[in-house]
Amino acid sequence: MxxxxxxxxxxxxxxxxxxxxxxxxxxxxxxxxxxxxxVMRIVEPSVSxxxxxxxxxxxPMTFGGEITYAEVDRLYNLLDGKPVDxxxxxxxxxxxxxxxxxxxKIGAGFVSVPTVASxxxxxxxxxxxxxxxxxLVGVEQNKANPELVLVDTAIIAxxxxxxxxxxxxxxxxxxxxxxxxxxxxxxxxxxxxxxLSALAxxxxxxxxxxxxxxxxYKALEKGEPDDHLEKLVEACILMSxxxxxxxxxxxxxxxxxxxxxxxxxxxxxHGHQVAYGLLVQLVLEGRDEAFMDDMRQFYRDAKLPLKxxxxxxxxxxxxxxxxxxxxxxxxxHMVKFDKPVGKDDIVRAIIEIEQA
Length: 356
Prior knowledge:
Helix content is 52%, strand content 12%. The protein is α/β, with parallel strands linked by helices and 356 residues long.
């Protein structure tokens, strides 16, 4: 059995936040908007005006900053039983994933409004939960993919370059992970066989990232979207999200289990962690030196991490590598590889990367 999951509607372009009321009017009349303090200042005036024009009732709620079960409960308690048809989460991955869990808890529909293109959470139905120390504690599933994903590229064009770089890293890895998941006959996020359409998306995602990243970064410097940025944002949010959920994950994402346990590295952005994880995966795949040289040059152009120190590693203790390898080897995604991957294999791959 194959399963392909996707949001019901995806729209992308500049200044779309001003039209959100029209988009939401077909989904319900009682709207909750979740965003952190910074994002709330950016989006709330436009969302409030647009919702009022559409005759919708809006309740803004400030997100605390970390996706924890306690934060979901806090927001739930603030609602105090008020009727909610749609939860709109605006911001980055943490805010969006919190919105997913809140909507599930109250039985409402969910809409994501990413204000950065740092990862592909906006299109998916899963939420990654952490504790107060940013240690991963669980992966939850919403009842479905979002009702709507609204991507305002005029907002994203003004976000920090580091965040877009993380999105590039998260998108770049999907081609290689979906390939491995299919080759290993692994299951996708829905527990089903990966459809070939997911692989086609992963390949197009990779090609788009390679073709448009450098020029899109220039648009970010100007703070205005152009064709390169539009294409890159589509790859980082839409293509990458559809590819990972329906195509499956592998070593690159499995490496986050170990990387998130290392002091300094744990605070690195998810997209930068999986980008380093891709280097490990490529070494395990036995890619030739010409391929690795080409990939390393792209990493330099895309401002992606080539070494653990680039992820924030403190010190040079070999025990770090042992810890990363041991925890990563036990990650569920590691079995979605065309040959067994053990701790020693990962240690050797990391050492090769660090010495390159």
